[in-house]
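Exercise: predict the structure of this protein bound to iron/sulfur cluster.
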Amino acid sequence: MAAPLAVAPAATKEKPSLVGLSREGIGEQLAGIGIDRKHIRMRTAQIWNWIYARGVTDFSDMLNVSKDMRTTLSDAFTLKRPEIVTEQVSEDGTRKWLLRFPARGAGRPVEIETVYIPEVGRGTLCVSSQVGCTLTCSFCHTGTQKMVRNLTAEEIVGQVLLARDRLGDFPDKSTPVGAAVPSEGRLVSNVVMMGMGEPLYNFENVKDALLIASDGEGLSLSKRRITLSTSGVVPMIPRAGAEIGSMLAISLHAVRDDLRDMLVPLNKKHPIAELLEACRNYPGLSNARRITFEYVMLKDVNDSPADARELVRLLRGIPAKINLIPFNPWPGTNYQCSDWETIETFADIVNRAGYASPIRTPRGRDILAACGQLKSESERMRVRERMALTSMFPDTAD
Ligand code: SF4
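Solution:
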């Protein structure tokens, strides 16, 4: 008789989350567990309010839902937040979370970073859209990390919920003692899609997440306070304006195609003229809804007065704001930050032409939380190991 086959224990299946679903999506899930169709609208509205306006993570806290229904919901679904691997607080109050999300399909668990930047009148959350990035912008640390996968809408909106949890930005929650937060108003008042990844390469999930973030019966962030930043995925820019309607930021960084081809290789596909044309036609563009152009200041690369004058010429006719970003170095980069005097001269030229061009004060540099420095810690360790190995055994350099 053949020996009985060993049966592997069934893998414990994660319950589906209701976070990141549209109202229709929640309704379908409720119908799927047999909730009476005529109650679905009301139940969805209740659940939506508890998740996004009250920040609950446990169905048993949904006090206007009957006890039996709470048990049914909790047996079928989860509202779990992302797992926090580390939380670092910079000496300037910037906070960075390394978050881990479970494997999707055959993949492995993944890690991304989310950064909170408190200022006097606002608190900005920099949210990631992908694990790694395909675009290899040469000044960006994330660009050196292999693309692993897109984040789901749940994982994108989960970053906002988690930040509000940790900062005490939901009703009945308190802010950690000593945390740097704006002195009044909402603690997470602005969201920028400027973390890891190119949001327009993950359009549907980013769109779903941002529509949830701006929903007036939940997180209620004004679309004027949500900024989607792209390195120039031109074909998706009109859709972003029409279907998401947030503010737009462009990672420009150079005024000549030959240089931009090097700094932002996507430029080879969608050169500057094409990109600026899409900006001119961005739905809803006006003086009140200006496009932000991000310009990283790289010493002796893109920082001359002639570059500044060309920038002014290129942007003529586009309601725009120019953010000058002093380069934030990361381990292994060959770029250096422009001298302060050079940055000021550049800013003067742009300001005199009538563009508001704040020099973005570097934030969170001591915890590698500044612009272009994000990367998952496991990747950072791999880079450190490779660098150590390369210095010990120079022949192993790739
Ligand atoms: S700047 Fe943005 S698009 Fe470019 S490599 Fe970094 S994360 Fe990707």
